[in-house]
Write a structure and sequence with these properties.
Elements: H1 2-5, E1 24-25, H2 49-52, E2 61-62, H3 84-92, H4 94-100, H5 120-123, H6 125-134, H7 144-156
Antiparallel strand pairs: 1-2
Helix pairs in contact: 3-4, 4-6
Organism: Candidatus Entotheonella gemina
Protein name: Cytochrome c domain-containing protein
GO molecular function: cytochrome-c peroxidase activity; electron transfer activity; heme binding
Length: about 180
């Protein structure tokens, strides 16, 4: 826990009861998928700027909660990372992780009309440079031992009872709508 709140600097954004500040941050997360129609080509996703209209908010996305984080993959606002440790390593050195990103780790549904757009934004060097410049995180150095300890802490934030929630499905809801459709 000391590592999380200290050297790893996780608590800069992931803090409080839900392990999130609910704020928006830019961390040079690889952009995959068809985008949101932003930018000249239309395949970009400007993040929070889409709401505020402020260029300062470009590529900022809301900090997710870390409660049950092991169960919430894929990780990143667009699901760029399919492995929790990979997204943690991204946070340790965003610019390098962005440049070295392996598109093979993305699990995307296939759609014939969108497949060609899956990695257009990521493959554009100017786009990657803009993402990298926007990152609020610089390099954080952790030994392999400390990375393993950090991963163990993240796994400890997962409630084992969350693995099977079928017993928590109510028989009825106040709206009267069917629960089992």
């Amino acid at each position: 826990m000391r590592l999380f709140y200290g050297q790893a600097q996780c608590s800069q954004c992931h803090r409080g009861k839900f392990q999130t500040d609910h704020a928006f941050h830019a961390i040079a997360m690889p952009q995959i998928g068809p985008g949101k129609g932003d930018g000249v080509q239309g395949w970009d996703d400007f993040g929070r700027e889409r709401v505020t209209g402020q260029s300062f908010d470009r590529y900022r996305f809301r900090t997710p909660s870390l409660r049950n984080v092991v169960l919430t993959g894929p990780w990143g606002h667009d699901g760029a990372y399919n492995h929790l440790e990979a997204v943690v390593q991204h946070h340790l050195e965003p610019a390098k992780a962005l440049q070295d990103y392996d598109t093979g780790q993305a699990v995307l549904p296939s759609r014939s009309d969108l497949d060609a757009l899956d990695f257009v934004a990521y493959r554009d060097p100017e786009h990657r440079a803009a993402l990298s410049r926007s990152s609020e995180i610089t390099r954080i150095r952790l030994s392999d031992r400390k990375l393993r300890a950090l991963m163990a802490f993240l796994y400890a934030l997962t409630d084992p009872s969350s693995l099977d929630l079928r017993k928590d499905v109510p028989e009825r809801v106040p709206s009267g709508l069917s629960v089992f459709d």
